[in-house]
Amino acid sequence: MTELTWQRRHVISLSDFTPNDYETVLQTAVSFLEVLSRRNKKVPTLQSKVVANLFFESSTRTRNSFELAAKRLSADTLNFAPGTSSLSKGETILDTARTFLAMGTDIMVIRHQAAGVPLAIAQDMDTLSGKVAILNAGDGKHEHPSQALLDLLTFCMYLNPTTPTAKDLKGKKVAIVGDILHSRVARSNLWSLLTNGADVHLAAPPTLLPPEFAEYGAKIHYSLEPALEDADFVMTLRLQMERMGQFLIPSLREYHAKYGITRDRLAKCAPNVQVLHPGPVNRGVEISSDLMDDPRLSLIDRQVTNGVAIRMSLLYLLGTAI
Ligand code: NCD
Predict the structure, then answer these.
(1) Is 311 part of a structural domain of the chain?
(2) Residue 24 CB neighbours (<10 A)
(3) Is the minimum distance from the CB of 138 to ligand 1 under 6 angstroms?
(4) Does residue 252 share a domain with residue 151?
(5) Do 211 and 80 lie in a common domain?
(6) How confident is the model at residue 58 (pLDDT cuts 50, 70, 90)?
(7) In this predicted structure, what is the pLDDT of residue 244?
(8) What number of H helices and E strands is found in the chain?
(9) Is 147 a pocket residue for ligand 1 (Cβ < 6 Å)?
C-alpha cells in the first residue's frame, strides 16, 4: 500500500483532495472504528487540545457527531449556538472566531448558511496565529467535506468490510438523486466520487440540476430510470426548501411520483444495491418510509455511525499536525 501522508492544516473543500488524502482519512477512520468497537471507546490523542464547534446554522447529526468525535479523542469541547451568543448583540463572525482563538482553541469546526465563511475564517486565523485548524462542517450550498468522507467510508466498508480502501470504489456506479442545485453534500461527493474513480450519475428535475455538473465528469439525467439502471449505490437528497428562493417543483406528491426512491424502483439497479441519505430525511418525499427503515437496503444508520469515525480521523489528522 502507498505511504499515507497528511499536509493540510484546514479542510475547507474536497476540490483539491488527492487520492492519498482520501486514503489517509479513510485508513485513519478505519482504525478509529476499531477503537469505537471497544468497551473503552476513548483514546488520549487530543488531550488538552480545544475543539470549538461554531455552528451558525442548525444541525443535529453533524454537530453532535463532531462533539462526540472530539470527546472520544479526549479533547476539550466548546459549543456555540448563534441564538444564545454575542452574535445577537452585533458581534461579527470574525470577532466571534477571534474570541475562540484567544481562549486557546486549536480546531474550529464551522457551519454557516453562507458559502465561503469557513475559508474567510481560515484566512483571518492564518494572519493571526498560523496554528488554528479550520474544518468546514457545511457552508451554504458550497461544500460539506466530512459528509462526503463518511459517505466514502460507508461505500468502501460495504464493498470490502475487512480491508476497505478508497480504490474499492473504482468503476462502481453511484446515482445521486434529488435537489443537487442546493446541495453541498452533492458537491463534496462529486469531488470524492470522481477522484476515486466512480461512475457518477445525477438525476433531478431540470430546475434542480444545473447542466454545468456534466463539465466535471458526472452524467446528467432528468429522469430516474437511466440513473438507476445497474447502479451499485443510490444516494437520495432532501429538497432544501430553506435555500429555494421560489418553489422549484410543482408539488411534493409529483416530485415523489417522478423522483422518489422506492423499493420497486430499485429493481432496475444492481442486485446488491444500497441506498444512502445524509439526513435529515423527509419520509415519503425523496425516499419511501419503508425503504429507509430496511436494513438490507439502507446504509443510512451506517452513515451516522461512520460519521463519528471520520470526524475523529479529521480531528486527529488536523490536531496532531498543528
Ligand atoms: C446535510 C446538510 O446539512 O448539508 N445534512 C447533514 O449534514 N447531515 C443535508 C441537508 O441539510 O439536507
Answers:
(1) yes
(2) 22
(3) yes
(4) yes
(5) no
(6) confident
(7) 76
(8) 10, 9
(9) yes
For the cut 90, the answer to whether the pLDDT of residue 134 exceeds it is yes
Cβ 243 under 6 angstroms from ligand 1: no
Interacting residues of 18 by C-beta distance below 8 A, sequence separation 6+: 195
DSSP conformation class of 16: T
Q: Distance, CA 185 to ligand 1 centroid (Å)?
A: 7
Q: Please state, as a whole number, how many other Cβ atoms lie within 10 Å of the Cβ of residue 7.
A: 10
| Segments in the chain forming alpha helices (H) | 19-36, 61-72, 93-102, 117-128, 145-159, 184-195, 224-228, 252-259, 289-292, 300-321
Q: Is 5 helix (H, G, I), strand (E, B) or coil?
A: coil
Region 191-199: mean pLDDT is: 98
User: What's at 318, amino acid-wise?
Assistant: L
Does residue 235 surpass a pLDDT of 70?
Answer: yes
Closest CA relative to residue 281, chosen from 113, 65, 60: 60
Is residue 282 lining ligand 1, measured as CB closer than 6 Å?
Answer: no
Domain containing 272 equals: 145-299
- Per-residue pLDDT of 243-278, as tens digits, reads 777 778 888 899 999 999 999 999 999 999 999 999
| Segment 18-29, tens digit of pLDDT | 999 999 999 999
C-alpha–C-alpha distance, residues 272 and 270, integer Å: 6
More confident residue, 90 or 212: 212
